[in-house]
Amino acid sequence: MAARRKTFTAWSAVAGIVSAAAFLAAAELIALLVAPQASPLLAVGSFVIDIVPQPLKEFAISTFGANDKIALLVGLGLAVVIASAIAGILEYVRPPLGAVLLVVAGVLSGAAILTRAGAGVLSALPPLVGTIVGVVLILMLGRRLRAWRDRAAAAPTESDPEEGAETAGASRRGFLGMTAIAAAASVVVGVGSRVISATTSSIAAVRDAIQLPAVRSTVTVPAGAEADVEGLSPLFTPNAEFYRVDTALTVPSIDPSTWRLVIDGMVDQRIELSFDDLVGMGLDEYGITLTCVSNEVGGGLVGNAIWQGVPIRDILAMAGPQAGADMVLSRSVDGYTASTPLDTLTDDNRDAIFAVAMNGEPLPLEHGFPVRMVVPGLYGYVSATKWVTELKVTTFAADEAYWTPRGYAAEAPIKMSSRIDTPRSGTPVNAGTVPIAGMAWAQTTGIQSVEVSIDDGDWQQANLSTPVNADTWVQWWMEWQAEAGTHYVTVRATDKNGQVQIEDRAPIAPDGSSGWQRTLVTVR
Asked: What's the rounded Cα separation, in Å, for the pair 269 and 354?
């Protein structure tokens, strides 16, 4: 009896999982037809990203890095499996509680979808249809499973045992058949809809076909700008290796032919530009290092690239910001917002740009295609909006950006920093001459010097590469006569104003980490 109870409980869990799969598959199919951005699973995932506490966000980034979105989707998938199994068991033992649980899931997913940027009336259809399909299926499977259970229990006492066994077998086959058909259909419809959606919304071919106009000016890379030291990061970070941190669970697919940039708010004239309008203003090259506020001391959430774009100040000048405005709220197509000081974007001495190309090619999709913002000297969360579609000229008092109510500063200039690339902690080196090398950056000011201390001894001057400009990082290196044992290597930088890098450690919130990197090196 106990074994039979466990068997039916297990099958009820399967029924719940299959019903949830049918829910998602139907929702994906309807989303494909009427509202591509209304996928319940992705909408809930985006909602989780929005509400996750700051410590958990930083934990995810530090633990999973660029795979944090994949980790979230895997976690959501496991949560869906567990919750749907519970729904199936409830429907088996206490009907219709399982169906009620699916209805609640449908309402919550619908709320998550309808509160996303760009949601319309049709966005309600995917969760609605998915809920109906899931509820109908779990009710039917629950009813058939209970019939199978009742027939199996009654079979031994039937007046005709063979007929009783046959009846129980028919009930079992009915349940298993419906479960198998529903599961197979859910996989085919769900996976097929998602694949078709990804294929039809893909902008990769459009991106590859874009012919950007020739730039009017190029970045001059001086002799000595890049050192030849093994283990040292390259001067310019390849696109495929450039860090990615954003709130987009799936990369937005934006056709440049339909993209529009709107400038409104506290302006004399509302401006709306197409992609052709923007690039038609003329493109120039800019060498700019980007840094994420989540970058820990010595971390890798920083990269350097040559960007092609148009000065943001020229676009803002067309709109005419009004007196009293002090902030620009930039908005991504997925609803993300960033707050940037107006005077930073209008400063003639700062190359804040709308970028359309990165390291000689149109922006990669995951880095903001077709247009993103790049602003030297500010952490990305207050300046580097990807897939940008709107600038609202406003005030810090009237508006706040995505991360401000989540524990981050509304204004966040990048802190000067230096990093040890080689030797790495945990990778022993041989005694003798050992190169110590890394990167340093002090945007808009530039690095004057980098110093290294071994085992808290005297500071030793390191060699510096020739800087491309004040907005890019520089490489540094020195030779160390390493003796066997364990040693601490510490680095610090000084900018061209004579300011020494902050020694005291600070966490990344609310406005970026600080501190000297101190690495333990084993010499054998």
From this structure: 20
Strands (E), 348-400: 353-358, 361-362, 372-374, 388-394
Q: Give the total residue count for the chain.
A: 524
What pTM did the predictor assign? 0.80
- On the CB side of 315, CA atoms within 13 Å amount to 33
Find, among 442, 517, 465, the residue nearest to 289 by Cα.
442
The answer to whether residues 437 and 229 touch, using CB atoms and an 8 Å cutoff, is: yes
Task: Report whether the peptide linkage leading into residue 256 is cis, meaning its omega lies within 30 degrees of zero.
Answer: no
Q: Cα separations (Å) of 8 from 12, 96, 142, 143, 237?
A: 6, 17, 11, 12, 57
11-48 exposure pattern, b = at least 16 Cβ within 10 A, e = fewer: bbbbbbbbbbbbbbbbbbbbbbebbbbbbbbbbbbbbb
CB atoms within 10 A of CB 520: 10
Mean pLDDT of all residues belonging to the chain: 91
Q: Which structure tokens are listed for 197?
A: 């959606």
Look at residue 494 and give its three-state secondary structure. strand
> Which of 477 and 62 is assigned the larger pLDDT?
477
Helix (H) or strand (E) holding 302: strand 302-311
Which strand (E) or helix (H) includes residue 253? none
What is the arithmetic mean of pLDDT over 112-123? 80
pLDDT at 166 over 70: no
Q: Enter the DSSP assignment of 249.
A: S
Q: What pLDDT, in 10s, does the model give residues 71-91?
A: 877 888 888 899 999 999 999
Q: pLDDT digits over 170-191, tens only?
A: 788 889 999 999 999 999 988 8
Q: Does 3 have pLDDT greater than 70?
A: yes
